[in-house]
Design a protein that fits this description.
152 residues, alpha+beta, five-stranded antiparallel beta sheet, 43% helix, elongated
Length: 152
């Protein structure tokens, strides 16, 4: 086997495992947010930047907004496919335990949590399956008896 190919394969596997663990951590964090505990607050859109999303001409927008909780100002953003105007008032939801974390809907944290956990499990499951296949292949190779040679 080419040594550089083996090192590249190991680097990719390490990346997938680290990415899978990170996705699981993010998923668990977001699932830990109880949607019923989120509080609504009025926010103001401070900027909107348009980005071309695909070849069909569908645009997406990055919406940056500010909101205040207990006299402290926060700023966040989200992506949207609908055009929002600067200065527009919107409603966002924040976690009272961590007011800097805001969401566009009360169910958003649950959705992100589930997606993170599924992605993490897929990455780690795929790497686990690769490890099992590798172990099986090595055990088959070692269990194969040596070929009998005809000696005359």
């Amino acid at each position: 086997m080419n040594n550089s190919k083996g090192i590249g394969s190991i680097i990719v596997k390490i990346f997938v495992v680290v990415f899978g663990i990170a996705a699981l951590i993010v998923g668990v964090k977001y699932l830990g947010v109880n949607a019923a505990d989120l509080k609504s607050v009025d926010a103001e859109v401070v900027s909107v930047s348009e980005e071309l999303a695909d070849d069909s001409g569908t645009s997406s927008y990055t919406v940056t907004y500010t909101y205040t909780v207990d006299g402290i100002g926060y700023q966040s953003n989200y992506s949207s496919y609908s055009d929002v105007q600067q200065g527009e008032k919107i409603t966002v939801y924040y976690d009272p335990a961590s007011p800097a974390e805001s969401y566009q809907s009360q169910g958003e944290s649950t959705y992100v949590g589930i997606m993170g956990i599924l992605l993490g499990l897929a990455c780690l499951g795929g790497m686990g399956w690769e490890a099992i296949k590798s172990i099986r292949n090595k055990s088959k190779e070692s269990a194969t008896p040596p070929a009998i040679q005809n000696v005359e």
